[in-house]
Design a protein that fits this description.
273 residues, 15 helices, RNase_Y/CdgJ, HDOD domain-containing protein
Amino acid sequence: MKSSIIDSIKALPPLSTTIVEINRIHADENSTINDLSKVIEHDPMIIANLLKAANSPLYGFARQIKSASQAVSLFGMGMTRSIAIGNSIRKLLNVDMKPYGITSEKFADISLLQATLILNWYKKVDKKKAETLYLAAFLQETGKILIASDVIQSDEAISFASEVETSNNLAMVEKSYSDVTCGEVTALVFEHWGFDKEFVEMIRYSDNPSAAPEKIREYSTALNIVKTIIPVNKPLSEMGINFGLKKALDAGYNHELLEDSVDDIIDTLEPVT
């Protein structure tokens, strides 16, 4: 890994007090949805992002969601935490995704798509694992922010973007420029911020799940399948969907459950391009 990326991770600012408090509440078995709502109500940015997500066609809520407490009640503690952390971290890291050929807004949309797909899919596979995977999928592309920044600083943005545009394997492109994949960078970022080891490791191996320890291989495989279907450069392309379904079949999943979840997303909104 390039020393410049390591230095960038070491220089990351701490998470906001709101996010630290959200993590504390989530870890406390005695905490309630009301406790979480009270914390979020003091952070206008988190409220705005929650309401944007809640009113997205992806979730199909029957009425317009107008308050943070409504959104928290509908999403539940785990999903609320995921959305709050994901959007806060992207703000904290000052996103510039030009080397990947997308805007920061599109990057956020794709992260939400990945998280939604894995949630809808895994609720049919193993409901207990679905929430854990939702957070991991929502955050697994975070390392791309630091890779993009490093590519820009190295004055390689044009050549990098050219390769990204045509690539069916973004991890390979990242490795060739930064000596590291997005999953490895993301793992180091959340290790730096003190996230639990299992969460860090499932993301670390998300670009190479066959090398993952057996305990977390299923998680890493699921994350890899979702980012294959919804990569940042070609989300929901026919080729990506077919590759992802093939990976699911090879991994022993009932790929029809995944295919149904993909179809539901495509039916809900036009593919992100």
